[in-house]
């Protein structure tokens, strides 16, 4: 089982399963009503799951019986599929007190199909998606800083790739995703994916935090910068 959905047929319809199978040819896609149903019917010797995606209706059960879900997932990533941001926020709040919940990834279900599939592809590749609606609100701030003229800092201990550094430099300059995509000759979608990776790797909450990290690297003076959230 490469990809397992946990939830009712209303939460994960046959159409959703068919679309996923067509988009990711070769994946074994299955659905179970609950983690107990999965444990009792899973066939021995099959391929291990890569993602175990559970519906938000199972959120309370996950918080009460996390070990049962972790055992069922094995080496797979646990993914919480939500429609209501407050359901995902409850899980994030639990992670503040119990680090074990911080490894659970998020999959918003209220997205256009092409966007939803892009997020799912990102998760299948082991990456993390940071839904914008769950980023903490930050008051706009103006920060006096200096950045180089197209001479980004070197990767700090391999934290970011050179391309990610290119992106975060332009973020620090206040460029929009569209402007960054044009300058780096990338698609806006690719820029968004780079930003999600940057935010995750740096352990910050949003693009402002990423820009502050870039500025903190001791870049040589070149030109003043206004950093806005």
Query: Structural class of the secondary structure composition?
Result: alpha/beta
**First CA to last CA: what distance?**
42 Å
For the report, how would you describe the main beta sheet? 5 strands, parallel
Tell me the CATH topology of the largest domain.
Rossmann fold
Plain-language structure description:
By secondary structure, this protein is of the alpha/beta class. It has two domains: 3-134, Rossmann fold (3-Layer(aba) Sandwich), CATH 3.40.50; 144-226, Winged helix-like DNA-binding domain superfamily/Winged helix DNA-binding domain (Arc Repressor Mutant, subunit A, Orthogonal Bundle), CATH 1.10.10. Helices cover 43% and strands 14% of the residues. It is built from ten helices and seven strands. A five-stranded parallel beta sheet has the order 2-1-3-4-5. Helix 7 packs across helix 9. The radius of gyration is 20 Å and the shape is globular. Residues 137-157 and 220-229 have low confidence and may be disordered.
Outline of the structure:
This protein is 43% helix and 14% strand. With 229 residues, the chain is an alpha/beta fold.
Which key terms come to mind for this protein?
229 residues, alpha/beta, Rossmann fold, Arc Repressor Mutant, subunit A, 5-stranded parallel beta sheet, two-stranded antiparallel ribbon, 10 helices, 7 strands, globular, disordered C terminus
List the helices and strands and how they pair.
Blueprint: E1 3-6, H1 14-23, E2 29-32, H2 35-41, E3 51-55, H3 59-64, H4 66-73, E4 77-82, H5 85-97, E5 105-108, H6 113-124, E6 144-147, H7 162-172, H8 177-184, H9 188-202, H10 207-215, E7 223-226
Parallel strand pairs: 1-2, 1-3, 3-4, 4-5
Antiparallel strand pairs: 6-7
């Amino acid at each position: 089982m490469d990809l397992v959905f946990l939830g009712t047929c209303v939460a994960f319809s046959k159409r959703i399963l068919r679309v996923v199978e067509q988009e990711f040819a070769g994946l074994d896609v299955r659905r179970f009503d609950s983690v107990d149903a999965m444990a009792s019917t899973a066939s021995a010797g099959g391929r291990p799951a890569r993602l175990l995606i559970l519906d938000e209706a199972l959120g309370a059960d996950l918080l009460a019986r996390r070990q049962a879900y972790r055992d069922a997932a094995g080496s797979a990533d646990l993914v919480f599929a939500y429609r209501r941001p407050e359901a995902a926020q409850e899980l994030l709040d639990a992670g503040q007190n119990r680090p074990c919940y911080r490894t659970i990834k998020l999959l918003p279900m209220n997205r256009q199909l092409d966007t939803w599939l892009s997020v799912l592809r990102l998760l299948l590749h082991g990456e993390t998606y940071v839904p914008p609606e769950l980023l903490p609100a930050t008051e706009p701030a103006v920060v006096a800083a200096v950045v180089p003229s197209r001479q980004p800092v070197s990767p700090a201990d391999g934290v970011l790739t050179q391309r990610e550094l290119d992106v975060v430099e332009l973020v620090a300059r206040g460029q929009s995703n569209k402007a960054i995509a044009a300058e780096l000759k990338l698609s806006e979608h690719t820029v968004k994916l780079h930003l999600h990776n940057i935010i995750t790797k740096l352990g910050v909450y949003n693009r402002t935090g990423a820009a502050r990290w870039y500025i903190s690297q001791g870049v040589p003076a070149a030109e003043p910068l206004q950093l806005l959230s």
